[in-house]
Amino acid sequence: MKTIALILLSLFTFHSHAETLPLKGNVVKPSDPHIRYIGRVSLKDSHVARFNFPGTQIVAAFEGTSLKMIARPESGYFMVQIDKAAAFKVGFNAKRDSVVTLATALADGRHVVRVMYVIEGLFRQPEFHGFILDEGCSLLPPPVLPERKIEFIGNSITCGYGVESVTKEDPFEDETENHYYTYATLTAQALNAQHTAIARSGIGVYRNYDGPRAGNKENMPWQYGYTLFNQHDEAWDFSRYQPQLVCINLGTNDLSTNNYDIKLYEKAYRGFLQTARGYYPHAKIVLLTGPMLGEKEASQQRKVLDSIRKDFNDAGDKEVYRFDFSFQTGDLYYGASWHPSYWQHQKMAGELVAFLRPLMDWY
Length: 363
Hints:
The chain has eight helices and 19 strands. By secondary structure, it is of the alpha+beta class.
């Protein structure tokens, strides 16, 4: 398997290694008020922060010369940035690697850490258990987060399925999924915005990938109102994150195999858009189409979304918009299973940023 991790390896300036207990240093719990979370995180237990959507972020400032992170074994992969250095990837994959060193030999003083969960955690059940600082050191008041906020609602494209692979024949693997390299993260970075990603591979607005013509119960509308994907014991409090911009990228799975009902897709999309508007009454909402569908299916999807946008606008909701990504052609290679490559995601971000800057007046 080829992977762009090899290509990007020269960017990594910090290196991690797993450690075993007992813990030494100042252990900071996930509930510490100096820690900022971006994304849907459950803190019902003060000793554990639970999440499973890609793109969930943990941000903190700390003093000292080193930093370690504690997570549930087999939680999966994170991208980490210390101060303004290049981001690097760490993994909690073995059954006993509960502690990973994120930084050593830093200059004594204030530092900022940004940690992003970059895979889908539905089966991993990831948990953040805290940080370990140098003895006598503590967390500091956190950095100010951007006032601009975006929510991306999507499928495998938004998750970053296969983005670290460079051949379309590769299957899905956690090792080549990386939300940090997606159009969503790149767009948010370019616009200096926070972002969340409510996304899952294979999901649709009415019908998941290769599902029955009548649709799947476990679709995005069914999952959307909860803190954790596929766990319906904790409703998400939408007041915790009110974006000014919502980008919906759903339909690739609904329409990607020849067993769909375009009318059911349209009905479900209209209902879901109404739901999103109810949660975010003041946001601009952009209806996206992705780069993967064939010509027939893409044409149908664009026609449906154009109609929905017009109807909402005509009914008085003037803050619903439309945007289409360019189709992928292979000139920028493919990721695993024909998904957008690392370079295709860069192109997608460039296209979307050019559309969003004047729309949001975010310069």
